[in-house]
Amino acid sequence: MGLSICKTIIERLRGEISVTSEIGKGTTFTFHLPYEAEQLSTESSTLPNGIVTLSDESQQSDSNNPVVDSESSTSTTHKVEKTFSKPTILIAEDMDSNYDLLKAILGKQYKLVRAHDGIEVVTMYDEVKPDLILMDIKMPNLDGFEATKIIRELSSDVPIIAQSAYAYGHDLKTAKEAGCNDFIAKPISQVKLKEIIKQWLPQT
């Protein structure tokens, strides 16, 4: 499942992924992603040109000497936890102020998990298995429409509510075609948001 998601994301970003394997030595996965040189910082320009490899041997050696960021580790643990008392909502939102507003509206009634971009919401969906997804449309790396299409390849059941400041007719149509169940315009109305969520999570 993990490799299938990786392949789908890389191809959506117009990249390529390949694999080589040798018995007794390990497997190497290599992917190439297109990028524009002017977008790279001075520090990142010293890195290999979009090539990343991962082998069984390197994974084994890294596991013997793990490097752990205590803050990110705590955050990840918090994200993956799923309580049984509250439905879990996965919020895909790259703007802190927008997420803070959603947290203020929904935080007491639901378990909230945040993804910062389209790629993260796809990988976190597979980990968290949320009851509902609030999907921002304009996000970096992978937009909400493309992320929704990938998640729909994994599940046709989870409700996905698109949220965007652009609420024109063609945006609503594109959201529906991508697989979104509903649409809410920004700025978010507290009453409207709660009504839509209750429509798709009637048990709450």
Question: Mind explaining what this structure looks like?
Answer:
The chain is α/β, with parallel strands linked by helices and 204 residues long. The protein folds into two domains: 2-64, no CATH class; 70-200, Response regulator (Rossmann fold), CATH 3.40.50.2300. It is 42% helix and 21% strand. It has eight helices and eight strands; from the N terminus they run αβββααβαβαβαβαβα. It has helices at residues 2-12, 56-64, 70-80, 96-106, 118-128, 144-154, 169-178, 190-200; strands at 16-22, 26-32, 51-54, 88-92, 111-115, 132-136, 160-164, 182-185. The strands form two sheets. A five-stranded parallel beta sheet has the order 5-4-6-7-8, with helices on both faces. It has a three-stranded antiparallel beta sheet with strand order 1-2-3. Helix 5 packs parallel to helix 6. It is globular, with a radius of gyration of 19 Å. The two termini are 31 Å apart. Residues 39-83 have low confidence and may be disordered.
State the major sheet.
Answer: 5 strands, parallel
Strands ordered across the widest β-sheet: 5-4-6-7-8
The CATH architecture category of the largest domain equals 3-Layer(aba) Sandwich
Rg over alpha carbons:
19 Å
Order of helices and strands: HEEEHHEHEHEHEHEH
Number of domains: 2
Quote the distance from N terminus to C terminus: 31 Å
CATH superfamily of the largest domain: Response regulator
Percent helix range: 40-55%
CATH topology of the largest domain: Rossmann fold
Average pLDDT over all residues: 78
Task: Just give the CATH class of the largest domain.
Answer: Alpha Beta
Per DSSP E runs of 2 or more residues, the count of β-strands stands at: 8
Note the total helix count: 8
